[in-house]
Amino acid sequence: MNIFREIFYGGLSLIVGMTVTARRLFRPLVTVQYPRRRIPLSEAYRGHIELKFFEDAGAHKCIVCFNCEKTCPSGVIRLEGVKLREKGPKTLTGYLIDFSLCSLCGLCVEICPTQTLQYSGQYELVGETRSDCLIDLLARLNKRVEQKEKTAKN
Amino acid sequence: MSYLLSSEWSRLILGLLVAVGFSQLNALFLVWLERKIAGHIQLRPGPMEVGPHGLLQTIADAVKLMGKELILPLKADRKLFFVAPVLVFTPVLVGFLVLPFAKNMIIHDLNVGVLLIFAFSTFTVPAILSGGWASNNKYALLGAVRSVGQNVAYEIPLLLAAMSIVLMANSLSFSEIVHAQRRLWFIFVQPVAGIIYLISATAETNRAPFDIPEAESELVAGFHTEYSGMGFGLFFLAEYTNMFIVCAVATSLFFGGWTGPFGISLGIPGIVWFLFKTYVLIFHLMWVRWTFPRVRFDQLMNFAWKVMIPISLANFVVTAIVVKFV
Question: What's this model's pTM, rounded to 2 decimal places?
Fold first, then answer.
């Protein structure tokens, strides 16, 4: 009689298993078809660095102190600034990063005295050459500001 | 045209040509369906890129397979190696000759059709063995030997289940067996034989959970490890055509063939009923494959010899007594 009991419970477990997969068959898919559909990014995502835009100043707050360039362990950051007035503050004229060297440690963001650096949400970073990894942060900031003005107008 | 159709030989040749074409299309569709079902069970979409919902994916795959080089392993048996895939595919094709697709849609209504189909389905065993042997590869040989052991074991309950139906219908001809179930399908009269047939058919077609001849986690790919290009393609084609044949036989033996349930046909033509039931059974096979894990070899053999064969034998004897005396 043992064998019949085994067959009965075995068969029952088979049916239970089949209902599990049958139910899954009609559940919505979890795959996101990426280039056609995107999911909202987490706030905590850390892409390459970016200059922050401050509404009160109407610009970034970089004082060209070179702290980020000095603290960067991989030599990613190249800053350029000029004094527009004698005895005045320096003005940022160029902020280049070579993202192919960056290890995303975030030391530059932490050390910035005016907290004008942030992480961008950029994750599509495919390039064909190494020079595609060079990112001009100042140009990106200007572009963002332009876009913001455009949407504000509309 | 009518002369062509009435002549027995031209009918056979025409039927075989149609069968070859149909088996290719069927395999292309079934591979796509299998991947779709596997995907949806695992909550992913399956093939999506080539054609609407990936429908043309398998055509692209087939073209790729045809373009591939046929690689002959060193020290392999050259003749046997190239003949084996053809040997696997041909007997499968013979099955189409006696399948009753509709009332008069049968290529050759043989009075021993059931016998013919099971005799030829046994042919795939030596073909698989020769393929595995000729490859001169340990995994291929192990897979082939497993396949032989499994097929020999599961053929017995398969035939015993089919024989119970033959006793009920008192005929070996498919059309007469279908005719005998125009009131009540045999699955309701012979549920045990039906379940045994479905289980053994899964094992006969080497499909999961009985796919140990090609268990990829232990044997690379089993008996077709060394095959590339269309050699592998033919094994694949044979597997999916075999699935269709096995399910079509199940349809005509247990599920009333071209007739509707309880004699209600709803005005739907017989071939639609037949194909519908066959593809539902094929869907069931795929559903089983993507639900259950693979069994171990000793479990498989124990199940065949200690459970399936005694039960099918008992079922057969009881059927014989009931048919004779009631």
Answer: 0.79
